[in-house]
Amino acid sequence: MDGDHLHAGTRARHDRVDAVLDDFFALAKRRAESVGWRYVDLWSVLERNSAGGKRFRPRMVFTVYDALGGADDEAVARVGAAFELLHTALIVHDDVIDRDFSRRGIPNVSGSYRDTATTAGIPTPAAEHRGMSAAVIAGDLALTGASRMLLGIGCADHVRTRLLDLLDEAIFVSAGGEMVDVEFSLSADLPTVDEILEMERAKTAVYSFEAPLQAGAVLAGAGEAVVTAVGDFGREVGVAYQVVDDLLGVFGTEEATGKTTRGDLREGKRTVLVAHAATTDEWFTIQPFIGKADLSEAEAEHVRGRLEVCGARAFAEGLVEQHARRALDVLDRPEVPESLREALTPVVQDVLERVR
Questions:
Q1: CATH no. of 1-222
Q2: What is the value of pTM for the model shown?
Q3: Beta carbons of 139 and 122 less than 8 angstroms apart
Q4: What is the pLDDT of residues 189-244, one digit of tens each?
Q5: In the chain, N or C: fewer CB atoms in 10 Å?
Q6: CA-based angle 87:176:187, to the nearest 5?
Q7: What DSSP character marks residue 103?
């Protein structure tokens, strides 16, 4: 398949997911009218916060489904939309946990409700509480919406049950990873690299890679050996992806990541970079700046330099290569058909390109 055809096919898939989500939100807003205009407004804000994304998780579903010969465009669009709603739910809740009122420079659900409250003259603490409250409710609605989306798929009962199980496991594990991340952020003791990797796998890799890849295989009618293989692939490439995020959070550019490269350092985010640096002699020159709320660009540049000197950057880059290689090794298993190997290999290359 040539690049232009692939691009057109991907765009058509994304358009179908968008259409499914449009229908979902239109129905939700009609139902909300019986409760009142305030509830309709909440659904509208949630809809805006789910729009415009890269549709990355649906793409994982499509990639496997198409490679395995799936042909039900409506069913795969609904599965992709379910994982997009799950993503929306988790980032809305994550912003509440992080007390963030914007995402990529635009007010999120919390920020939208906070801003309308402050404009109306409500004091900031109460306005922020309003925003956080609305976001908790909106995230809950997106979570239940993801399950509802799968319930409406026209497929065999055992396939629908398996898809719901995958979604449930993704939510269950992601919640556990989020809780561990919260505990890490509050602990004076730094977690180890292995603990960080396991947290990142649970918090993000499962719902972003493992579950949607497996969902595509299940919907396509693949055997359990293939479903297991794409899950293993997703675990490895998902961990690599998260380590790349750690690197870009410090060494990337704001143009590429959409966020400041001082944010992770100011927050004191527990990453593999920090965990590795803490085991080296350079740590005493780095530690005072980790979690410094008013970290300057000059101080951030100092930290970046020390992270390079102590080998933390090279160590993290090595982890990316290691997990990427493991992901490719999974694709060499005899149960993985050539069509699937060809479809998933570029996913690994895309991850590696992000850090090069």
A1: 1.10.600.10
A2: 0.92
A3: no
A4: 899 999 999 999 999 999 999 999 999 999 999 999 999 999 999 999 999 999 99
A5: C
A6: 115
A7: E
